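[Automated response] Your request has been received and processed.

Submitted sequence:
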Amino acid sequence: MRIGLTGLGRIGAFHADTLLGLPAVETLVVNDARPETAREVAARMRTAHPDKDVEVADTAEELFAAHLDGLVIATATGAHAEWIRRGIASGTPTFCEKPVASTLEETIELARLEADSDTPVHVGHQRRFDAGFRRAREAVASGELGFVHTIRANTHDQSPPPAEFIATSGGIFRDCGVHDFDAIRFVTGQEVTSVYATGSNKGADYFTAAGDVDTGAAVLTLDDETLVLMSTTRYNGGGHDVRMEVMGERGTIGVGLDHSLAMSSAEPGADFPHGPQRWSFMERFLPAYQAELTAFFDVAAGRSESPCTIADALAAFRTAEACELSRAEGRAVTLSEIKGL
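Generated structure:
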């Protein structure tokens, strides 16, 4: 397959390496807003993957003229929407890292555009392809746990991103917690009906300056009355920690509870977890990213439908919007208050 990749920052360069490591990719055509960056990454990739072809497209027009089988968007968030529009307009199956847009209104617009088009769009919520989250989904769907009453979900980053990222991130619930919101829908098959969220700052001043928080927490109620306790932070010095515990009538299943768990036990004699820890989301979810992009190839080839549409991404984004509103106003917010399709 000939795959186009636009955006070659941290996640884009990571995707370039991941894509070229997959057997289905014969040629990767890379593009970046800074042509010199595209050339630098292309040179590295040719060295790392001498059996693959790596081409450079200086402009969007050159990229779409390269006879692509699919397009992967890993640009800065502000450019996602325009690249999705270009992908749909050209009939090119498109994969886009979350979020698809910076605002709720533009996300809704793109979901409508997707619904009116035959061109598939796959949004990058990689936890849907993580073995642990898929096992938890199976346990819920099969009835193995009985009725589910409580879920704990967390995303704890090892260290904070830079100030310039936080200033444009949209807030901790839109940027970080949105992964949990999508995973909750994916695992349970239920929708969020209400949220109560709060947050605090004990770290760098630039969070407060941006109107954001470095730590957030929320209680969500699902439409089957399951309660979700969710937390997210930019400061978890012990490592990158993403977990979910699904508690049911007949048992509990946990995701992320292996020896890489970024905590230590207070119990005498306990040797769990013994490490090594993982230090970034790219390390934690590398197999999921590989599976996700492989699934996109099936979408691009017409063998399957998108496993995470813009409509799915909108559902998670609406929950994030509700959490940000709840944090700002100090009250419970129902999802009916948040605009949707």
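Summary generated for your ticket: The chain has two domains: 2-126+290-310, 128-280+316-337. The chain has a mean pLDDT of 97.
If you did not submit this request, please reply to this message.
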